[in-house]
């Protein structure tokens, strides 16, 4: 079994330390390559937020759809529906797409 560490000091300084310890057998691949790829994957900043919208009672916004807010495309990760006093409210969990 081999041991490898990959880190990005600029990201650590800006966001803090995010650590992931993974055990892989030598027969499953090169630990250095795996660590480099995992760092690249985890080092991406994910932008997400939630908003509440009002839509027609017979309309239905679903998770997995796309929405554009201020000319930015977002993937709808969650949609919580409620009807209050005949008004259809939808709280959307959004993640920046692209």
Describe it.
- The protein has 98 residues and is α+β, with helices and mostly antiparallel strands.
- The chain has 2 domains: 9-42, no CATH class; 48-96.
- The chain is built from 2 helices and 4 strands, in the order H-H-E-E-E-E.
- The chain has a 4-stranded antiparallel β-sheet, with no helix packed on it.
- The radius of gyration is 20 Å and the shape is elongated.
- The two termini are 37 Å apart.
- The mean pLDDT is 86.
Mean pLDDT score, rounded?
86
State the helicity in percent bands.
10-25%
Series of secondary-structure elements, N-terminal to C-terminal: HHEEEE
Please outline the major beta sheet: 4 strands, antiparallel
How many structural units, i.e. domains? 2
Proportion of residues in extended strands: 35-45%
Q: Radius of gyration, Cα only, in angstroms?
A: 20 Å
- Poorly predicted regions: none
Can you count the beta strands? 4
The CA-CA distance between the termini, in Å, is 37 Å
Q: Determine the number of helices (DSSP H or I, runs of at least 4 residues).
A: 2
Strand order of the largest sheet: 1-4-3-2
From the spread of the alpha carbons, the general shape counts as elongated
Which structural class fits the helix and strand makeup?
alpha+beta
Short description:
This protein is 19% helix and 36% strand.
Write the layout of secondary structure elements.
Elements: H1 9-15, H2 31-42, E1 48-55, E2 66-69, E3 72-84, E4 87-96
Antiparallel strand pairs: 1-4, 2-3, 3-4
């Amino acid at each position: 079994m081999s041991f490898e560490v990959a880190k990005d000091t600029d990201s650590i300084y800006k966001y803090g330390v995010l650590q992931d310890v993974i055990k892989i057998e030598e027969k499953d691949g090169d630990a250095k390559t795996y660590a480099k790829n995992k760092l690249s994957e985890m080092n991406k900043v994910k932008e997400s937020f939630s908003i509440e919208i009002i839509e027609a009672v017979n309309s239905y916004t679903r998770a997995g759809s796309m929405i554009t807010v201020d000319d930015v495309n977002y993937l709808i990760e969650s949609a919580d529906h409620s009807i209050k006093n005949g008004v259809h409210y939808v709280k959307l969990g959004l993640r920046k797409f692209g």
